């Protein structure tokens, strides 16, 4: 088993433990709603300490139900995860492309020319030069 595989397995076990341990240990059993969010906990604490407190601002949009609020939060998390996955995938692809170009013995100038030409051809441009592709 490689070092990276061991680290990934360890991280997976830690995440699973963080998800299961609070349920297994019964944390929050003494509360009416055991696993409420931080916003609800803060609101409860504020109303206990300062019963006459009035918020300075109100939400721009208040969802009609908790289920819709939960769905919107999940959508936001999914979009964020998608953006991060795209970024890291793009970065990895570029790194692998550069490694393949170096392994093939291409110089940095050849790689830059090939990249510029391929990009221009994909965008419908002329490319400004030939690198030995079709029609060269």
List the defining traits of the structure above.
single chain, mainly alpha, 4 helices, 64% helix, 0% strand
Descriptive account of the structure:
- 64% of the residues lie in helices and 0% in strands.
- By secondary structure, the chain is mostly helical.
- The longest helix is centred in the middle third of the chain and has 38 residues.
- The two termini are 47 Å apart.
Class derived from helix and strand content: mainly alpha
Radius of gyration: 27 Å
The strand count comes to 0
Largest sheet: none
Low-confidence stretches: none
SSE order and pairing:
Blueprint lengths: L2 H22 L13 H12 L16 H38 L4 H15 L14
Concise synopsis of the structure shown:
The protein has 136 residues and is mainly alpha-helical. It is 64% helix and 0% strand.
């Amino acid at each position: 088993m490689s070092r990276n595989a061991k680290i990934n397995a360890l991280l997976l076990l830690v995440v699973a433990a963080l998800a299961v341990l609070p349920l297994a240990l019964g944390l929050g059993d003494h509360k009416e709603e055991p696993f409420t969010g931080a916003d609800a906990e803060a609101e409860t604490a504020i109303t206990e300490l300062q019963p006459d407190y009035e918020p300075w601002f109100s939400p721009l949009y208040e969802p009609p139900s908790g289920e819709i609020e939960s769905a919107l939060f999940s959508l936001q998390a999914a979009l964020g995860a998608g953006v991060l996955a795209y970024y890291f995938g793009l970065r990895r692809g570029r790194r692998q492309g550069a490694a393949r170009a170096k392994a093939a013995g291409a110089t940095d100038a050849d790689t830059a020319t090939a990249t510029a030409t391929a990009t221009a051809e994909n965008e419908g441009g002329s490319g400004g030069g030939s690198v030995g592709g079709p029609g060269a």
